[in-house]
């Protein structure tokens, strides 16, 4: 026999619906690549009556939720509706959202919100949600290798450091960047990160200038004693790169200066130093910069092939950019106009070389045996402009020196100036002043005036 309170509770439990339950989960996603098609899947289980499904894209750290999909059961009959609320029936649903071609901007969290009617109270809605993070990767879009601080003047008679910079843009996440020489990976010593707020940083404080065998002073004895005036020895710098010394040690006797590069005095195998940094871009990608620094040796580094290679999870194989260190050879010079006349503006331009030159050379123009037309001793740049050339420049010789840290070359060209029928001979000298017959008459008139005044 059953007691009255127990029977009453049993009757009440049979007459009142059980509260509905709802569980929501979103299937996790592996990282995807820009351009891929992605399907977001939201799974949920319930024994209640469906009300709605809403998908959100969350931005700004969760402060903004952008609605991207809505399903309202009041206006759709796609879902089963339970007729007997006293019977517990588990229904499993799945809502999917397909992104046909994902972009970097699609990266971030997504939420799936599900609402059902409560079994106990039809006016009440039970809500549950799940979330997933869509990680969108992007392969680098560009890679380039350049030389730092070039073009710039240098001394071919002193050892110096050289830095290659590899710039990789458009990748997400940051790529792995490394260098190779002649196809072989370079083992380099990592350099520390630059201090905050120092801007562009280069390891110049690690540089020094080693004496080579063309600069040994005549007073250097067999025992290695150097004559008076040499600075005292400084502490040894990092191996492979050396620190700045007093310029007094850089005195080069004119008698030993050669047009050829000396045999550099340092270790046979170069010591490389490597630094890697990255900076976020406004589009969500990363710009990576890698630098490789070593003491340049033109004897072994000329025509050496260096490559910067990039590994990235969005790439099926590494991407690379190659450069070959080469000294300039055989500059090609053009002159316009090809037939210069007195009063013309003449342009002499370097248009290229017999070879591919890297790094970019520095160009210096001089006039053999005299100064340039504007009075300067030399002019820097690929182009030399001579304004309103006078007849006196006919036959003048101009030298263009092209140089980079691996070597230099000189090319000469001669200027031939023809008469200009629009300008009578002798009416203008190199300074543009009047000469010839008109000038003589002016001088004669001035002289007669002075004589008359004196008398």
UniProtKB/TrEMBL annotation:
InterPro entries: Ig-like_dom, Ig-like_dom_sf, Ig-like_fold, Ig_sub, Ig_V-set, Nectin/Nectin-like. Residues 222-241 are annotated as: Disordered. It is a lipid-anchor; GPI-anchor. Keywords: Cell membrane, Disulfide bond, Glycoprotein, GPI-anchor, Immunoglobulin domain, Lipoprotein, Membrane, Postsynaptic cell membrane, Repeat, Signal, Synapse. It is found in: Postsynaptic cell membrane. Residues 19-128, 331-416 form the Ig-like domain. Residues 1-23 form the signal peptide. It holds the Pfam family V-set. Transmembrane segments: none annotated. One of its GO terms (cellular component) is postsynaptic membrane. The keyword Lipoprotein applies. Its main location: membrane. PROSITE patterns: IG_LIKE. The keyword Transmembrane does not apply. GO terms for biological process: heterophilic cell-cell adhesion via plasma membrane cell adhesion molecules; homophilic cell adhesion via plasma membrane adhesion molecules. Involved in synaptic inhibition in the brain. Selectively regulates inhibitory presynaptic differentiation through interacting with presynaptic NRXN2. Interacts (Ig-like 1 domain) with NRXN2 (via Laminin G-like 1 domain) in a trans-interaction manner. This is Immunoglobulin superfamily member 21. The lineage of its organism: Eukaryota, Metazoa, Chordata, Craniata, Vertebrata. The gene is Igsf21.
């Amino acid at each position: 026999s059953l007691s009255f309170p127990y029977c009453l509770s049993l009757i009440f439990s049979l007459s009142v619906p059980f509260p509905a339950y709802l569980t929501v989960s979103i299937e996790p996603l592996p990282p995807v690549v820009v351009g891929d098609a992605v399907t977001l899947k939201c799974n949920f289980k319930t024994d209640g009556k469906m009300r709605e499904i809403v998908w959100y894209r969350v931005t700004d750290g969760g402060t903004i939720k952008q609605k991207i999909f809505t399903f309202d059961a009041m206006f759709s009959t796609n879902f089963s509706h339970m007729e007997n609320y006293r019977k517990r029936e588990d229904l499993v649903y799945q809502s999917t959202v397909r992104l046909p071609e994902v972009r970097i901007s699609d990266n971030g969290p997504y939420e799936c919100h599900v609402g059902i009617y409560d079994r106990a109270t039809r006016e009440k809605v039970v809500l549950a949600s799940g979330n997933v993070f869509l990680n969108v990767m992007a392969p680098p879009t560009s890679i380039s290798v350049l030389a730092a601080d070039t073009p710039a003047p240098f001394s071919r008679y002193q050892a110096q450091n050289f830095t290659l910079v590899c710039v990789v843009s458009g990748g997400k996440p940051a790529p792995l960047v490394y260098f190779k020489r002649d196809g072989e990976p370079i083992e380099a010593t990592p350099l520390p990160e630059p201090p905050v707020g120092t801007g562009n940083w280069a390891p110049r404080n690690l540089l020094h200038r080693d004496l080579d065998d063309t600069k040994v002073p005549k007073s250097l004895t067999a025992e290695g004693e150097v004559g008076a005036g040499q600075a005292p020895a400084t502490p040894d710098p990092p191996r492979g790169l050396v620190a700045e010394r007093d310029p007094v040690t850089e005195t080069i006797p004119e008698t030993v200066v050669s047009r050829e590069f000396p045999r550099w005095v340092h270790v046979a195998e170069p010591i490389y130093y490597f630094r890697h940094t990255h900076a976020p871009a406004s589009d969500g990608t990363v710009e990576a910069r890698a630098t490789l620094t070593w003491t340049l040796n033109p004897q072994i580094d000329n025509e050496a092939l260096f490559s910067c290679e990039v590994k990235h999870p969005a790439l099926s194989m590494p991407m690379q950019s190659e450069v070959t260190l080469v000294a300039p050879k055989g500059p090609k010079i053009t002159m316009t106009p090809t037939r210069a006349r007195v009063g013309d503006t003449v342009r002499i331009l370097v248009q290229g070389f017999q070879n591919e030159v890297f790094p970019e050379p520095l160009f210096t123009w001089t006039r053999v045996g005299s100064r340039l037309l504007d009075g300067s001793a030399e002019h820097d740049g690929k182009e030399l402009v001579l304004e309103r050339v006078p007849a006196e420049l006919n036959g003048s010789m101009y030298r263009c020196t092209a140089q980079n840290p691996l070597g230099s070359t000189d090319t000469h060209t001669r200027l031939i100036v023809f008469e200009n029928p629009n300008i009578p001979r002798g009416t203008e000298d190199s300074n543009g002043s009047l000469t010839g017959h008109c000038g003589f008459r002016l001088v004669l008139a001035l002289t007669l005036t002075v004589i008359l005044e004196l008398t």
